[in-house]
User: What shape does this take?
Amino acid sequence: MILQDLEIFVVAPPAPGWGGRYWIFPKLTTRCGITGYGECYASSVGPKAMQAVIEDVFTRHMQGENPENIELMYRRVYSSGFTQRPDLTVMGAFSGLEIACWDIIGKARNRPVWALNGGRMNDRLRAYTYLYPEPGQDPTEFWASPDQQAEAALRYVDQGFTALKFDPAGPYTIRGGHQPALSDISRSVAFCKTIREAVGDRADLLFGTHGQFTTEGAIRLGRELEPWNPLWYEEPIPPDNLLEFAEVAKQVRIPLATGERLTTKTEFATLLRAGGVRILQPALGRLGGISEGRKLAAIAEVYNAEIAPHLYAGPVEWAANIHLGVTIPNLLLVETIETGGAFHQRLIKNTIRWENGYILPPEGPGLGIDFDEDLARAHPYNGDKLHLQMQEAPCSYQAENRFEGGAPSEV
Assistant: This one.
């Protein structure tokens, strides 16, 4: 097998846009006609520039190569330009291409990707979802209402979910870490209290933030959340302050989780060595793909740490997360968009099964999905904005801070 052709789909999910403003899917085709699909997670450049990066990475380091030679191609890309340093955009490009290579390899062998990466360790994967408003519900009010989120939590628990994520802690801004407003702390406490009272011990609470606090600010907030026993406190400080996570962990009795914005296993290893984080949340469309996810899981085992693959993207990264999760002994949870996401599932023709709070391993060859190219082409993203964008205005200590829940408010 020889990698020959590349095509890129930039797809805009229809409103309300759960999963981000757009998704980027590279399609690889071998000289013998086998196709594979991948997904590149959010980058720091616009979609046109990102397509150029993907094309450059493919033609420079992968075209003409055997798709089985994943480690060789990874080392080429990681070392390109005399770097061997985390590069968010280049590694994001390679990640999607790597996932597509595994899809090709599985199809060539007529086996699921998980069967070629250690085999089935887990017969089903415990899934979690964010709390999302129902169709027709005012999202502005929903993101700020403990009562409405508690109603959503009970709805998801009745469907079978045993873990739920929410993030009422206020804005994440370009200014780095800040002290939370007292109103942000009060709202966060109210969310935990109200949701815990609604679901009791039927579900774990996953308290999300987005790296917006100083070390001391994260400690102040985290201590107030302890009575409701969240399973994790997610990325409470900026992701570039790796050693400071240990300082938060020393003073907050909630497990810390992080990883969606990290790009290499080396960054994760720094967190593990420092002792601050034991729940790792890699985004496989950014980390380097499935092979790097397997390496990270093995490193985490040494530290008695768990893996909870992150998903705020499209269904191909979701599929990659699932194939990783099937194979590893230290899986905690896999993120999903509700029970799979209406448009997510349409785009892969409902080829991943969610059942009573769990995801079942795909049995088809490769990723086991049926990517709908016609639907992808019918929903192109033609804008120039980023997948997600951060707020420029600082945290307010007078007016109420509100977070939109990850759904883009404008195209």
